[in-house]
Amino acid sequence: MSFTRNLGRFEDDMRTLREKRTEPGWSFCDYFMVQVCDWLRELSIRAVGCSSAVHLCVDQEELAFVFEMLQQFEDALVQYDELDALFTQYVLNFGAGDGANWLGSFCQPVRSWNGLLLRRPIDMEKRDLIQRGEASLLDLRSYLFSRQCTLLIFLQRPWEVTARALELLHNCVQELQLLEVSVESGALDCWVFLSSLEVLHRIEGCCDRSQLEANCSHTVGLWTYATEKLRSLGDLCGLVSENGPDSEDLNKTVDLLAGLGAERPETINSPQSPYKKLKEALSSVEAFEKHYLELSHAAMEMYRVIGRLRSARLVGKSLAEFYMWLLCFACFLSCACGFFDRVCRYLQTSALLASDTNLSDEERRHFCQEILTFARQTAEGKGQQKDARVALSMSSFTRLQELRFRPSSALVHVSAALQLELRLCSLMPVPVTLEQISASIHFTQEQPGSTAQKRAAQNPDGTVTFPAASPASASASALELCEILEHSPSDNALSSAGVACRNMHLLMRRHDSTASLDTPNTAPAVAMEDAAQMLRASDVTLLPGNNSIVFTAPSQKPGSYTLRQLCATLGCVQFILPHIYPVVQYEVYSQEPQLSIQPLTGHNTDSMPVLHSSTCSARILSSSAELLAESALSIQSSEKVTSISLPVTPPYHTLEFLLEVLCHIPSCPARMESERLTNGQISRRSRTRFNSGMTLIDQKVSVDCPWSIYSTLVSLTFHVPFTIKHSLLSAGRRKFIQVCLRNVSDTNFRLTNQTLTENQHTPSLELCSLNTRTHSLVFRQQCVFSVWELRWSGVSPVSVHCEFSAAFAPADAPDAALKLYRYDFTLERVSTLYSVRAEIRPAVGEQQCCTGSLCRLEVSLTRLSEASDSDEEYSETDGLRSSRLLYEVIDNSSNWAVCGKSSGVVSMPVAAMATHKVHMEVMPLFAGHLLVPSIRVFKYQPRLASPVIQPDTDSCLENDSLSLEDQAETASLRSRGSVQSLGSGESAQPRGPMPKRQAFGPGQVFSGTQGQQVLVLPAADHHLMEVNVT
Amino acid sequence: FIRFVVLINYPLYIRSVPTQGELKFHYTVHTSLDVVEEKISGVGKALADQRELYLGLLYPTEDYKVYGYVTNSKVKFVIVVDSSNTSLRDNEIRSMFRKLHNSFTDVMCNPFYNPGDPIQSKAFDSIVSTMMVQAC
Lengths: 1030, 136
Description:
The structure holds 2 protein chains of 2 kinds. Chain A is of the alpha+beta class.
């Protein structure tokens, strides 16, 4: 109770004192009577008459302290607010000329500007100064604010702190002006900067991050203010000037830093204290730039977050101004790496301005000239910095309009000409001469056609039209509308219908906010890709407005080419379009090499025997079959593969050459040389077949080319044009050799020089030509026969090896070279062993043979020579050597009926001219001139108990089967003859070891009566005459 | 100094006493629209119809004080005053806005005036001039 009473009394006293302050006789002594503290009294005495406000402050603050101690923060704050307002009023009054002379102490020059200090609850240092009456206005304000700040934070109202802080800072600046306090220029900026940051730090210290982010509308003012102040400090200290800080600027900086004093012990350990920041920022251009950018971006970001876009842009604008300033002296900074960023930004801005049609022509020219000058200067002055290129976005420089392919398909074969015409619109106000304009190309080895769908943007006439606006806005500008129908759930009736826009969120979005602010950051990201292939055009002058540039596109390799980037080079400035959209592609294909095989003469390849002379040179023919050149081939052969190096041939030309190929024809008597053109590497295999009398030899040739993965199989067919048959003809003992040459092809041939030679050159043998003509013509499918007589002296030859040869050439090619055709054959058992004669006589007492009457057939077998060969078997009977012969009467035309045995075995003595006669009865069945039945003679070998090993198994087997057949034949003949069958002795023979018969060789048996005819009269008493017309 | 601006979202009428520093002034006014919008949206929720047209001090800067006023049809009035000018109190500013609003209403009543066009009215001019003379 007593405390409250005391407090109340204290308050009242204070109030009375204050009320008295305007009275002329207001005394400090009276005022001090009520003071609690002695030190206050002392202070007051010293400040008699001139510093009443100070005392008042201190007194009122005492009250505030009391409240604070009592946890009455609200009340304490009110006391401070009252003090604050009171002081403000004094200052205003003073400014209005109402001289409260005690305020004079605040008008002394400001010597220290070390900012607010909010980290201590009570800044005793300042308080001390105030008590001693030495405080400056800034000190007083700082002190008061720090107290207010402390209380507000106790009261959990940090956001009020920022608002008050901003007010305080503005206020102080105004008051100092009003009081005409002399302040060193920049000092206030330092103070404001430090104070703003200090407040922000204090707030950050007592709030968590999410709170801060949610309330940046309260802090952003301080951020902006600090940014502005730092900027003006930079201007002041020459950190944003053309030449960098000079000595005067440095002096200024030193003075300003001196005014900061030493860093407070509270913040000395914190790396991010405002004091350190300011000191660092003022120390160098780079540090200043860094801090300035940091603050600007923070402020802009906050403005953007709270939706104050105009304010954000204002900060951005001053940032832009800053960049512009930097650029003004950028030319003088030669080697700084960061320099180029700034140059880029400046040049980009210049380009934007130069292309802006809203500006006056004069201004546009100016900015365009800026770029040109820069490009020229750096190009001249910096040969050593070739790689230092400034890359700018092309969008502000030119606009792509259209791209046209010639030919329009954008598909060419390798090395063919492809032109690209690029139409672009220059946005510059003056003509610009570019050193080079190039487009980088991305090459892929895709198969043509696979990218067809990607080239959808290309019109059929080979043009690609680029959208007028930037791709981003173009894509966003399309409305995606869809209709919406709502049915009522109960009866499914249409309740509402409408149209909705699906991408409204894109369309309704503000376009300017993020994109425009980010532009300066994205500009340096424009970089030229390294590309192996380029489209280039040099020394291009772009006139304002539409231009057309023609490029020649590379087409050396097959594949797909995609245009990626476009780059216009102007000195060391490059305008780059980082992506060409829509996709522009062209394709280069190479046709697969094909080997075409054609017959070189004639059209009928099936029947055409190809006989060619060959040369080892290749003829190069143009596509219109003109002969261009002839060059030699080099052919290298290994065991299996033949490699042929072809001469260089231009595309779409034909290479023609002949190769001589030796084709071995196995198991064939003829051998021929032939040829067909092949190519590349050859491997062969062959197969022979016989077809319609003509020998066909199939050859397969595989042609492998290094440029193709496929092997080409060439099938070659060789035709042997002739077939040859030989036969041995006998006339008694004389022997003739007949050669039948048959032309099986469809071509007529000339045939000359037909010769038959005996291979072994036996001196006793002689071949006599019986041919009269040496030249003959053999037509297609016809035969030519030639005959020689074989003569020998002394012992008859066992076998004769002969070779027939003839030269031939196509009949319709008179000058064609003659080819040799050869034929080898061997004759065995040439000499005649037996002569067989058959004679038919009428029955005894008859003049003529008559049908139905028996006639006599007399067969006489005569041995002509002594048997000398071993193929006859002899049997010894009674000391007489004889061989056994089987004879057989064969009447193939069934003219005769043989009565009795038609065959029999006779034993021929081994002696020359030994004759054996056999008589048989035959009956003619018809009248007329009938052929005498032929008599066949075989060697007869009775089967022995022990089988005889036959030297000639082939013939043995053949004869074996023949014998059975022959018996069957004779049996049937007999039954047909309707004559009683006497039975064949052999058929009656018991089965057991079969006797064998063996045929003689073709010339061994001479039939002397072959072809002889016998007149047979019809039987007179037949009432029915049978006439047989043969 | 004192400056008057009437604008919708673009200026309809601008009057400025010292003509130097025009650009900075324009920027300030432009930026102040952020705060105006913020305040309108904030106030509009609380009192839809019975709201105060006078928005008060929009924001202080070191050099200016910017005051704002919004009519019901969202036409904005902005007065920018030098910070050192302490003679103008809140009430005075408010009455100035009111006068301005009245005068603007007269302008709008002119059948020859197309809404949205820049204001070219002698009556409006004279009202603004008198206020400026009073303020300075």
